[in-house]
Amino acid sequence: MTSRTLNLGILAHVDAGKTTLTERLLFDTGTIDRLGSVDRGTSVTDTMTLERRRGITIRTSVAGFTLGDLRVNLVDTPGHPDFIAEVERALTVLDGVVLVVSAVEGVQSQTRLLMRALHRLELPTTLFINKIDRAGADVDVVRAQIAGLLKPTPGTVVSAGSARTGDGVGALLTTIAGMTVPRSDPHAPAEATVFSIERDRGVWVRMHNGTLRVRDRLGRRSRVTALRSPDGCHLEALGPGEIGLLTGLDHPRVGDRIGSGGTAREVANLQPTTLETVVDAADPTLRGRLLEGLTALADQDPLINLRLDDDRSEVRLSLHGEVQREVIATRLEEEFGVVATFQPLSVVCIERVIGSGHAHEIIDTPTNAYLATVGLRIDPAPVGHGVSFELAVEAGSMPPAFFTAVRSAVDETLQQGLHGWPVTDCVVTMTHSGYWARQSHSHGTFDKSMSSTAGDFRLLTRPVLMRALRAAGTTVCEPVDAFTLDLLPEQVPALLSELARAEVDVTHTGITATEARVEGVIPTRLADSVQRRLPDLTSGEGVWESTLDHHRPVRGAPPQRPRVGVDPGDCAAYVKANPR
């Protein structure tokens, strides 16, 4: 009889053997009676046809096994960098992690990225050095890499073995059995997070507190119609700490919270999307079906940032790379019956605020078309701060729904700054507020013409914030990758000449008699072209690793991104397009 639940993530760089380890854990605990294979497309957790065909994990999936009184929900996440957003969402629902490192390839760029996030979120982590049975495996070298590059916290267990043969997996199971399970309250109000969506609109949820039962109402339009455990069993209830598949939510999206969600873990923000593309239907008559398919995919992955530009008849997506684009194209064709065309990927920049700016509009004045008073100040914040919203007015000066409308409009407006790029690392402070209380006609009906609504605040916030932003000013910053390149000593001079032409800043060059390493930073927009040149420059010997490192101000004229919709900074056009 199980009494504890542990939600355990299996994380790794691509091809470290993560899904194979998941299969082995399920097999060794008697959950499955036959080992599946990633290469043959028979693994339990890679359920999509596309995953089986490509041999990679694309979406987070869940399986489970039992160890004594411990129920373990295994959350298998993608390893390819293009699907890092799936990993971000998984980290919000986990109690612990097994980070898999290949004994052959060792610590790689994605491994370091994941470990930094695990440190920041303080997630209990054990490391498993996999593939010790493969040619070229060197456990001692990998242990040294782990100590030097990953810097695990004291007491972190590092074990080694082979998921393929089962060697060392028993010791790993013992470690898992000893992991701490967080406390939760089954009698508290229900709190849960949606972290994955199935094709049939069923959603995977992690319960943080409370209990959900079949037939429970969740808002006016949602009701729990069915619950299933990770192994497919029908349930009547889902308790605290548990993961299950729920149906009945009205238009669910990944990241939705059920209840207050106050105990949910923060999103990891591992690596933002740095590329975007314009997509269209090869057959113009199927454009409606294309939009339907993209909307469904955006519900499953909100970070693709679906943007519809009706003025230019364009649909834009934010992506992590070519593999993700290929997967989206295949899913659109196979699941929605539409062949899509994609323009070449282009780099997504950001804007950072460089000064302070303020603007306000007072209710019932000639320049204000809306029944609201809104004043906003925008100030720069440290790099990595993101966008925060603060009040310099009394929290009780107007109804909470009006403040919510302002905050929502702030986030929306900052998706397109002065040059069209998302604005980040700033503090927006509300300095003025005011409204007209609800008015009614003599017979008691609501008189909108004399009463402020949340819509007034939402509509007025956008032009006020754009005026404040214009007063503050922004600088456009482009993404920059940090890279390491291992090559032969005699190849370094030609390589350095090539890098100099690619706006690369070399930060370190180490050369011995037999090998060399070059480290530096390169604009993301140029990284792909340099990598394509490497086989010629290094006779196929060069090994390149890179990951997003930071954003830096663009050198030269800032690039402009086409704006979607009416510019709130053009007051006359904005009010005409958005009448009260």
UniProtKB/TrEMBL annotation:
Keyword terms, alphabetized: GTP-binding, Nucleotide-binding, Protein biosynthesis
UniProt keyword annotation of Nucleotide-binding present: yes
GO biological process: ribosome disassembly; translation
SMART domains reported for this sequence: EFG_IV
GO function terms (MF aspect): GTP binding; GTPase activity
Residue intervals of the Tr-type G domain: 3-187
Descriptive protein name: Ribosomal protection tetracycline resistance protein
Organism this protein belongs to: Flexivirga oryzae
